[in-house]
Structures are given as C-alpha cells and as structure tokens.
Design brief:
Elements: H1 2-5, H2 14-22, H3 30-64, H4 75-112, H5 118-121, H6 130-137, H7 140-166, H8 168-172, H9 179-220, H10 224-235, H11 238-259, E1 265-268, E2 273-278, E3 288-294, H12 296-307, E4 312-314, H13 316-325, H14 337-350
Parallel strand pairs: 1-4
Antiparallel strand pairs: 1-2, 2-3
Length: about 350
C-alpha cells in the first residue's frame, strides 16, 4: 500500500545523492554563514581592532579639542588629512577584512564542500514573477521560516537586553565620564552585546543547519518505484558493468588457478580461447571441462598450463565448440568424443602412455 501511494521509505542511493549534488541540491544554512561571519568579525575586532579604536579616539579627541577645531582649513590640508585618515584606517582594517572573508568562505565550504554549479549562476527570469513570489511567501514553508525568524528576533533582543541591563549602572553614570572614556565604555558595551548576540545566532544557526540536513535527507528519500528504476539504470551504467566484469574476471582467475594444474590438456583457439580438460577413466564416464576462458582468462590458463608442464594443443573448431556448449565441471557432449579422444591420444603419446578410451553411456 505504501508503494502504491508513493511513500518515500527508502534512503537515497549514492547515485541519487551525486545527481542532487550536481544540481546544487545540498544541505545549506544561510544563517550559519551569516552568524559565523558576525561572530568571527566581533572576535577579530576585539583582538585586532584596538589599534583602530585608539587611533579613532585620538583623532576624535584632536578634532573635538579647542586646539584642533580650527574652522579655517584650506582644501589642500583637508585633502591631506582625509587621505591620511583613510590610509590609516584602511591598513588597520585590511587584516580584519581578510580574516572575515576567509571565515565566510570556510563557513560555506564546511557545509557543502567544493561545489560549482553553473546553472545556479545563470539568471532565472521566472523568479521575477510577482505571483510566484507571493506563493513562496505565503506558502507553508514561508510561514514557518517567518515564524522562525520572529523567534530569532525575540531571542536576540532578550540576549541583548540581558547584556545591557547587566551594565545599566555604568551606562547611567556614563555622562560623568570624559569623552575618550565615554567612547571606550560605549565600544566595550557594544562589543560585549555583539559577542553574545553573535554566539546566540551561531547556536541557532547550528540548529537550523541540523534541520536543513534532516529536510535534505527527507527530500532525497525514494519510493519503491524510484528505487527499482534507479537499480535498473545503475545496471546499465558502463562504470558499474565494467566493475562487475572486473570482479567476475578476478573470481574466474582464482578458479582457474586452482583447477588448471589438475588438467591433462589445454585446447586453444589459439589465442582467444582456452579450455582445460581432465580425464580419469577410473572415476569419470567422460572427459570434463575443468576451466575455460576467453581473452585475459585464456592467457592465464595457457600460462598456468606451461608452468605445470601441461600440453597445450591448438584445435580451433574444438575449442570454439567446447567454449560455447560445455559448462565448467561438465562432461563433453557425445558428438565431441572423437575430437577430444584424438587430442588425449596425442597427449598420452607425448607422455609415452596408452590412453584409455572414454566410456560412452
């Protein structure tokens, strides 16, 4: 009943996962990247931003003091001062911006790895459709996302208020401080609030990423019909066929390695086919095919025969017939008795023995 209703009850296969990844369907949380960037930015600024803040304090103090607030400044001096300020701030902010850029890139790479999807770069005109946009906004997923966003805002406001209320007395009496001390206090409060807000957003973003991974796994699940089609397609995959043939070849190599040394003769095509034949008149009604193979396996059979001093006889029609009609460990057919007997007689003659004739049932 579940199969008929199309219930997704099977986990995604590796092939389906790879296809989804190639199409850009991955578990990704935008909130995690933004929260990581905010948190790293605050931490970096708290470590490297002291020189920037000190310079800003000195510059503000100089401009607000009576000695540095001259109103008669020509254009040249103003440009020089502006250029100096921009250069100093730029050099101080350069390593900070670099670390934040690396953090932003790592937050994406750690989630989805290295992925390049050209189709996602191309503009999608259909997304400009206002009706489609309204449907996305007022859909169930849009409502859930909006609700989660409101909850995040409330949590962030609560965290920020908790940090500020803890230092409320300092803020109330801040009017009695000098301008530099007042600025340092405000910056300290701002940094502490931003740090706690960033940590809170990062924790919420981790939860969001976990939800995205769970949702991604649910979307990738397959119905029974999809699983059958997937297996059918995989069986026709050239890579799968090649791998299967390789495994079969390795298994066949292992089998011929054990059986060929027991053979009395190897009949060849001469190079494409090789059939190992054994005959024991005491225990066998007729000669049997111990091993057979084509291509690489045939070469392996011939090599083993030479290593074990087993005669290799070229009989093209007989080799083709035995390879096509006789299975391994099966006796040769009646119509091939004469040809096989001739080969065995030749082998026994080489060994100086008299060949016993096959027993015909």
């Amino acid at each position: 009943m579940a199969d008929e209703s199309g219930e997704k009850s099977h986990d995604a296969t590796p092939h389906r996962r790879q296809q989804a990844r190639e199409q850009g369907q991955v578990a990704y949380s935008q909130d995690l990247g933004s929260a990581a960037l905010l948190l790293v930015g605050v931490l970096v600024l708290s470590y490297w931003g002291k020189s920037v803040i000190d310079y800003a304090m000195l510059y503000m103090e100089r401009q607000l003091s009576t000695g540095g607030g001259s109103l008669t400044v020509d254009d040249t001096e103003l440009m020089v001062q502006g250029e100096s300020v921009m250069k100093t701030f730029g050099l101080a902010m350069l390593p900070i911006m670099g670390v934040m850029a690396v953090a932003g890139a790592l937050s994406t790479i750690l989630q989805i790895g290295l992925l390049f999807v050209p189709d996602k770069i191309q503009p999608d005109i259909s997304r400009l459709d206002p009706l489609a946009g309204l449907k996305r906004i007022f859909s169930l997923q849009g409502v859930v996302k909006l609700g989660f966003g409101l909850i995040k805002i409330l949590i962030v406001c609560a965290v920020a208020w908790s940090v500020i209320s803890g230092r409320w007395n300092e803020i109330v009496y801040a009017s009695e401080l000098d301008v530099p001390d007042l600025a340092r206090l405000l910056i300290d409060v701002i940094f502490a609030t931003a740090l706690w807000v960033g940590a809170t957003l990062f924790a919420l973003a981790i939860l969001d990423y976990g939800f995205q991974r769970w949702k991604h796994e649910q979307d990738l699940k397959m119905t029974h019909q999809e699983m059958r089609e997937e297996m059918k397609n995989m069986q026709g995959d050239p890579q799968v066929i090649s791998r299967r043939r390789q495994i079969q070849r390795q298994m066949a190599m292992g089998r011929v390695g054990d059986k060929v040394p027991k053979a009395d003769v190897v009949v060849t095509n001469p190079t494409e086919l090789a059939i190992a034949i054994q005959y024991d008149p005491e225990t066998m009604r007729a000669p049997i095919v111990l091993a057979k193979g084509a291509g690489v396996i045939a070469q392996r059979i011939r090599k083993l025969a030479l290593e074990n001093n087993i005669p290799v006889v070229e009989r093209k029609p007989l080799a083709q017939l035995l390879y096509k009609e006789v299975e391994v460990n099966h006796p040769i057919p009646d119509q091939s008795y004469g040809a096989v007997a001739e080969v065995l007689a030749y082998v026994y003659q080489l060994k100086g023995k008299k060949m016993p004739m096959p027993k015909v049932a």
